[in-house]
């Protein structure tokens, strides 16, 4: 894949320093923009590559990124939330993979999570397989979508909190016979935020999913994926989830060592 095939967008909210770090790591190679959601910690203009928006939440940031990718006719959109931690060495490895490997037929691509990271999706944790592997879906704090997929997650204006576009992206990728992949060679770290029930966000997500002709199929995909993932739910909800992950992850990797 060529560097010009990918648009990188960094979604900033209260993490200006890390946003600028990610931008400076990626910009020499790829077109990259910081999208700032009026968080109070505004990143530097970065030569005009920072877009200052009102507090549009995740859904609004993704909408703006999709609009930019469509306007530029990019085959892939790669977005990263500003609280995702990626080392310089890992970014260099990611660059090499993106520029040297084929992503034909891949609808969604995502790095794996390191052991100290937080995700509610069990299979997103690295299996140390040393390769890309297919999964049911990924959680959308860092992902690369193909053009077909990123165009499909619109419209997002009725879903500002942004619960669900990652699931919709993976549903349609698999529905169209494309792959959703986790790359065990690339591991990122994501801190645990506030885990709470947000009725408005959940209602927005349900309405968003049901706006598609395949709405009921998407809802069932959500339910079945959540059931499949339930084995880790009890471990990640408590504040002490890292202690439980030390028990869970060796067992998880043992049963998926191949």
SSE blueprint:
Blueprint: E1 6-12, H1 16-26, E2 31-36, E3 50-52, H2 57-72, E4 76-81, H3 88-100, E5 106-113, E6 132-134, E7 142-146, H4 147-152, H5 165-175, E8 179-188, H6 199-210, H7 215-236, H8 241-255
Parallel strand pairs: 1-2, 1-4, 2-3, 5-8
Antiparallel strand pairs: 4-7, 5-7, 6-8
Helix pairs in contact: 6-7
Word description of this protein:
- With 258 residues, this protein is an alpha/beta fold.
- It is 41% helix and 19% strand.
- It contains eight helices and eight strands, in the order βαββαβαβββααβααα.
- Strands 3-2-1-4-7-5-8-6 form an eight-stranded mixed sheet, sandwiched between helices.
- α1 (16-26) links the parallel β1 (6-12) and β2 (31-36).
- The relative contact order is 0.14.
What's the total count of β strands? 8
Q: Kindly report the spatial arrangement of strands forming the biggest sheet.
A: 3-2-1-4-7-5-8-6
Class per helix and strand makeup? alpha/beta
Q: What is the string of helix and strand elements?
A: EHEEHEHEEEHHEHHH
Largest sheet: 8 strands, mixed
Mean pLDDT: 89
In whole angstroms, the N-to-C terminal distance is 28 Å
Shape: globular
- Low confidence ranges: none
Work out the helix count.
8
Query: In percent, how helical is the residue content?
Result: 40-55%
C-alpha-based Rg, rounded: 17 Å
Strand content: 15-25%
Summarize the model shown.
The chain has 258 residues and is an alpha/beta fold. It contains eight helices and eight strands, in the order E-H-E-E-H-E-H-E-E-E-H-H-E-H-H-H. Strand 1 (6-12), helix 1 (16-26) and strand 2 (31-36) form a beta-alpha-beta unit.
